Amino acid sequence: DAKTTQPPSMDCAEGRAANLPCNHSTISGNEYVYWYRQIHSQGPQYIIHGLKNNETNEMASLIITEDRKSSTLILPHATLRDTAVYYCIAADSWGKLQFGAGTQVVVTP
Amino acid sequence: DAGVTQSPTHLIKTRGQHVTLRCSPISGHKSVSWYQQVLGQGPQFIFQYYEKEERGRGNFPDRFSARQFPNYSSELNVNALLLGDSALYLCASSHPGQGVGGYTFGSGTRLTVV
């Protein structure tokens, strides 16, 4: 499974867009990019995933570069409830999820 | 619809004891995975089961074992508990092979070994 690299932390003002970067330069052709988040003491929550096309759902948008070596998760209007650790994971459709340290996002009023 | 349910929610055990953790997947999900999350770290993969067969195993000692039942529920067993086994144990269910989708996690079982 490909490894991913994320910044350890980032702050975001409430109401603004939060752009979370992720590098996955060794991703293979059959691996998807998954994003999860974990609010303190809860299980991880699925946000979105994509293979090579950009994706959007009610929670977020996922932008994947054409070479698939990096991606950006966009939370369009961050709220205080979006404060969490965000994990970017590259895995195939069967794959075990290899969680790294993630990005601690703090949304401030 | 009920999500992934895990029991118990909290557990305290003594070193050397054995523990069994239980997980019920979302209705219709046939795959269950187990993860261990030590405080301050991301979850680490332990096992994946699909249709009662083990499909993957992480880098954990043989003290860790699991099984999946005909109703797709699952148990994680840990023998000879060590202090280092203290962690949040997470169960996730999914629909692999029926279109790609994310895993749904339960809230976990907090195990404390004293």
Short overview:
Chain A is an all-beta fold and 109 residues long.
Description:
- The complex is a heterodimer of chains A (109) and B (114).
- Chain A is mainly beta.
- Helix content of chain A is 0%, strand content 46%.
- Chain A has no helices and 9 strands.
- Chain A has strands at residues 9-13, 18-23, 32-38, 45-50, 55-56, 61-64, 70-75, 84-91, 103-108.
- In chain A, strands 1-9-8-3-4 form a 5-stranded mixed sheet, with no helix packed on it.
- In chain A, a hairpin with a 5-residue loop joins strand 6 and strand 7 (70-75).
- Chain A is globular and about 40 Å long.
- The model of chain A has no long low-confidence stretch (mean pLDDT 93).
- By secondary structure, chain B is mainly beta.
- Chain B has no helices and 11 strands.
- Chain B has strands at residues 5-7, 10-13, 19-24, 31-37, 44-50, 53-57, 64-68, 74-78, 87-94, 104-105, 109-113.
- In chain B, strands 2, 4, 5, 6, 9, 10 and 11 form a 7-stranded mixed sheet that branches. In chain B, strands 1-3-8-7 form a 4-stranded antiparallel sheet, with no helix packed on it.
- In chain B, a hairpin with a 2-residue loop joins strand 5 and strand 6.
- Chain B is globular, with a radius of gyration of 13 Å.
- The model of chain B has no long low-confidence stretch (mean pLDDT 92).
- Chain A binds chain B through residues 32, 34, 36, 41-47, 49, 51, 85, 87, 93-94, 96-102, and chain B through 4, 33, 35, 41-45, 48, 55-56, 58, 88, 90, 92, 96-97, 100-108.
| Strand proportion of chain A | over 45%
- Counting DSSP H or I runs of 4 or more residues, the number of helices of chain B is 0
Q: Classify the helix fraction of chain B into a percent range.
A: under 10%
Look at the structure and give the mean pLDDT of chain A: 93
- Our measurement of the CA-to-CA distance between the termini of chain B, rounded to an integer number of angstroms, reads 36 Å
Low-confidence stretches of chain A: none
- What is the C-alpha radius of gyration of chain B, as a whole number of Å? 13 Å
Structural class by sheet pairing and helices of chain A: mainly beta
Sum up the overall morphology of chain A in one term.
Answer: globular
List how many beta strands of chain B DSSP finds: 11
Biggest protein-protein interface?
A-B, 23 and 26 residues
N- and C-termini, Cα separation of chain A? 38 Å
Strand order of the largest sheet of chain A: 1-9-8-3-4
What is the helical fraction of chain A, as a range of percent? under 10%
Morphology call of chain B: globular
Low-confidence stretches of chain B: none
